[in-house]
Specification:
Blueprint: H1 2-24, H2 50-78
Length: 88
């Protein structure tokens, strides 16, 4: 019984993979129209968006100030607390 089920399953699988795709293909009638119509490309915008013109420089300046503050804070708080002992 198991062999019969396996044989039937293999026959159905080979039918589904071999015969069905061949029958599902269409043979379209040739036409003079192109398959893809390519239109004109839109012109690029004349100027940058306001977000790029204003937000990006503002964020860069704020980031630079924050990094400088962190470096100065490290120099004052952490590095200034500890002294190297020069015992000989």
């Amino acid at each position: 019984m198991t062999r019969a089920r396996t044989l039937i399953l293999l026959l159905l699988l080979s039918f589904a993979l071999g015969v069905l795709p061949a029958t599902a293909q269409e043979d379209p009638a040739p036409s003079n129209e192109p398959a893809v119509v390519v239109g004109e490309e839109p012109a690029p915008p004349a100027e940058d968006a306001w977000t790029f013109r204003f937000l990006v420089p503002t964020l860069l300046v704020i980031t630079g100030i924050a990094i400088a503050g962190v470096i100065l804070g490290y120099g004052v708080r952490v590095k200034g607390r500890y002294r190297v002992s020069q015992e000989t």
